[in-house]
Amino acid sequence: MTDRAQYTAITRGIAVSVEPTYLEANSSPGNSQYVWAYQVTIERLDDQLCPTEPSSQRVICKHSYELTTVTLAEAGFDDEEISDVIRVMSRNGGHCDCEILYNVAEESRLKSRYWNSRVAKSE
């Protein structure tokens, strides 16, 4: 059984998308143990660290989860859920706000801008 539904909520202008995947091989329904993986996309994080509007002020990463924590809290996540999301991000190479966009997100403007600047420097 695999659940590939995606849920998106926009709260106070913050779009948070979550795609849960049931991990049958890691679950034990007979013992009431169900394991899920979640892919979380936080569009607001990319908007803050790499704004599309030239007039928007770019937020500099403080190499913490400050922006992620605030963004998730504003979207209605409680402290335990925020800790779970941060733990998942960390396990996948996202050890701060900018690393979530560089290492965890499949696509982000911040990551694209970085690699485009590297290519431009090498030419």
Can you offer a commentary on this structure?
The chain is of the alpha+beta class. The protein has one domain. Helices cover 41% and strands 17% of the residues. It has 5 helices and 3 strands. The protein is globular. The mean pLDDT is 83.
Low-confidence stretches: none
Instruction: Tally the beta strands.
Output: 3
- The secondary-structure class comes to alpha+beta
Give the termini separation.
Answer: 49 Å
Q: What is the total number of structural domains?
A: 1
Number of helices: 5
**Helix content range:** 40-55%
Give the biggest beta sheet: 3 strands, antiparallel
| Overall average pLDDT | 83
Strand order of the largest sheet: 1-2-3
Question: What series of H and E elements makes up the topology?
Answer: EEEHHHHH
Radius of gyration: 16 Å
Strand fraction equals 15-25%
Q: What coarse outline follows from CA principal-axis ratios? A: globular
